[in-house]
Amino acid sequence: MKIICIGRNYVDHAQELDNAIPSRPLIFLKPESSILRKGRPFSIPTWSQEIHHEIEVVLRIGRPGKSIPKTEALDYFTEVGLGIDFTARDLQSELKAYGHPWERAKAFDDSAVIGDFVSIDCLKTSIDNLPFELRNHGTVLQEGNTSNMIFSFAELIAEITTFLTLEEGDLIFTGTPAGVGPVKDGDLLEGFLDGQSLLQLEISKFQ
Ligand code: ZN
Q1: Measured between alpha carbons, how far is 53 from 97 in angstroms, rounded to an integer?
Q2: Ligand 1 centroid – CA 28 distance (Å)
Q3: For the chain, what is the domain count?
């Protein structure tokens, strides 16, 4: 399986990092080895001074597809969840300055945190108006709503599959809203989607 991530899909987040609003989705990958095993804490690696949390709505692909038209894209997933796209912001800024690929800052071990998934049929809200948030010890760090995405789920799936085959079990991280920031030892993160707690994560110091 693979993890496909979307950068800058919320205007308020693109602006907080001084990035331009993209005219088409910005797409990058994380490898399967970047997934943090469920129930394990996240250990801040020694080689970064600035690991940022990015809470994101995650789609789990239910069947394979290529060149999927927008009008059929919603048939390719039946579950949504939450993930954290951990990012070594200090390294990423360096890499961006040189125009280098982002993998060192985005694809490292444990950088993909995945919470529980819920069936779309069980949601109270339609998927294009889903509220989600990330809290630390109960304090809200990031708040988003899928209605504020620049590119909708259907548009993302259509765009991704112009050049990549989606396989069953692939995950799509659909972008983070404003409020990204550094994590520290002792943080206790919790992610909510549509009012449900789907992700809990402890942050500890060293690897
Ligand atoms: Zn992200």
Answers
A1: 21
A2: 9
A3: 1
Residue-number span of the structural domain to which 192 is assigned:
3-205
* One pLDDT digit (tens) per residue for the chain, 207 residues: 999 999 999 998 888 888 888 899 999 999 999 999 888 999 999 999 999 999 999 999 999 999 999 999 999 999 999 999 999 999 999 999 999 999 999 999 999 999 999 999 999 999 999 999 999 999 999 999 999 999 999 999 999 999 999 999 999 999 999 999 999 999 999 999 999 999 999 999 875
**Residues bordering ligand 1, an ion, CB closer than 5 Å:** 54, 85, 176
| Cα 86 to ligand 1 centroid, rounded to whole Å | 7
What CATH number corresponds to the domain at position 173?
3.90.850.10
The verdict on pTM exceeding 0.90 is: yes
Taking the centre of ligand 1 as the mean of its atom positions, its distance from the CA of residue 112, in whole angstroms, is 10
Residues with Cβ < 8 Å from 199, sequence gap 6 or more?
A: 81, 82, 83, 84, 113, 114, 115, 116, 189, 190, 191
